[in-house]
Amino acid sequence: MDSRPVGIFDSGVGGLTAVRSLRALLPAEDIVFLADTARVPYGGRSAAELRGIAAGDTRFLNALGAKAVLAACGTVSSNCPETVLALAAGPACGVVAAAAREAVRVSRGGRIGVVATEATARAGAFEREILALAPGARVITHGTAELVPLAEAGRTDVNDAAVRGAVRRAAEPFRGEADTLILGCTHFPLLAEAFRLELPEAELVDSGAAGAKAMAELLRERGLLAPEGRRGGAEFFVSGSREGFARAAALFLPGGIDPARVHGADLTQK
Ligand code: DGL
Question: What are 22-35's pLDDT values in tens digits?
Fold first, then answer.
């Protein structure tokens, strides 16, 4: 048993897909969440830049007393998972292996799409994980930079023409090609409804939820679960605008978000 918080980080609101899933799976856990919105988007950055960013984010969560770290970010998880594993004060995981496992489990025909950021598409980690589990699978990967800014602005409504247009373009390579689509950037499950309208035949895999499931398993295996029978809370740390984050986050977390729980994060100090 361990009542210290679980640390989760992302460049922004995308990581809330993992926060909401972990809260549903393990309601007793406390969570500290870092949204590095001063440096969003991560998806256009080089692997070297991402290593430095991942190191800073992980150290920040260590300093908050996190017992484990979840990189709720497809871009970090696919470009530099070893940085997080090496620096986290406790066990750590990302979203790639878990989402690949889930996609292989639900895919009916082994035609698996991965839609993610450009840096994730370039890294090829999802494809490697899928093919290690299912060597006969056909994997199509597509990177896009259009969707993260929309989600960060809280724009995910399918009646928003910009949202529908951007998701239509992101979905194009998978039309008639994929029976399963990994939303491999954690921002993209926030746009799941629009993806469902574009690709009604495809099973969608939420990478944030998959990462949360992997973290729950890790905590259970290592005997690090919080004592049961209590209701855990969440504290949010933001390197950019606290107000902007609180506004968007209120849309994506069931029950909204208490602005008093949103704190500034100075990542230049770490
Ligand atoms: N949500 C992150 C990911 O899963 C980062 C997106 C970005 O900042 O470009 O890739």
Answer: 999 999 999 999 99
Architecture of domain 6-94+209-264 in CATH?
Answer: 3-Layer(aba) Sandwich (3.40)
With a Cβ cut-off of 6 Å, ligand 1 is lined by 10-11, 14, 40-43, 73-75, 117, 120, 148, 185-187
Residue 80 annotated as catalytic? no
Residue 186 CA to ligand 1 center (angstroms) comes to: 6
Given a cut of 60, is residue 270 above it in pLDDT? no
Find the mean pLDDT for residues 96-115.
98
pTM (whole model) above 0.90? yes
3-state secondary structure the chain: CCCCCEEEEECCHHHHHHHHHHHHHCCCCCEEEEECCCCCCCCCCCHHHHHHHHHHHHHHHHHCCCCEEEECCHHHHHHCHHHHHHHCCCCEECCHHHHHHHHHHHCCCCEEEEEECHHHHHHCHHHHHHHHHCCCCEEEEEECCCHHHHHHCCCCCCCCHHHHHHHHHHHHHHCCCCCEEEECCCCHHHHHHHHHHHCCCCEEEEHHHHHHHHHHHHHHHCCCCCCCCCCCCEEEEECCCHHHHHHHHHHHCCCCCCHHHEEECCHHHC
| pLDDT tier for residue 269 given thresholds of 50, 70 and 90 | low
188-217 pLDDT, tens digit per residue, is 999 999 999 999 999 999 999 999 999 999
Question: Ligand 1 pocket check: which of 34, 84, 141, 186 to mutate, most ligand atoms within 8 Å of Cβ?
Answer: 186
User: Looking at the domain covering 96-208, what would its CATH class be?
Assistant: alpha beta
Where in the chain are the domains?
Answer: 6-94+209-264, 96-208
Task: State the distance from the centre of ligand 1 to the C-alpha of 40, rounded, in angstroms.
Answer: 8
